[in-house]
Amino acid sequence: MISKGNPDLYHYFTLLKKLIISYLEEKKAKVEVALDNSLVATDKNVNKIIESMRYSLLAGGKRIRPILCLAACEMIGGNDDIAMPTAVAVEMIHTMSLIHDDLPAMDNDDLRRGENYACFRIDYLKIISSS
Fold this sequence. Notes:
Blueprint: H1 7-38, H2 47-57, H3 64-75, H4 80-102, E1 111-112, E2 115-116, H5 124-130
Helix pairs in contact: 1-3, 1-4, 2-5, 3-4
């Protein structure tokens, strides 16, 4: 932890921390909107699968992986519009890995982040196909 003994350094790191938090919050909000917009049923036959995808994908989280994707694109002169489809895909792949890790054959815990896991809301095969 930065000591208050050096006021200039302490002020610098306090400001830097605020900037980083602000950046993360801004990018997370954009990622949340993009994730939500990516899950639209184009056919009534896929409504249940989309519902299970929404339950798992929009359950919250820090969204660090897609934010890192956006930041990497920014570093080389790109922007969020260019990187967002990839950022969304990265978060979907991460969520799929969590779903598979939590399947009853792999994990016997009923909760993820304090919430009932999707396995107990919809049937097993729909979970696998939703990921």
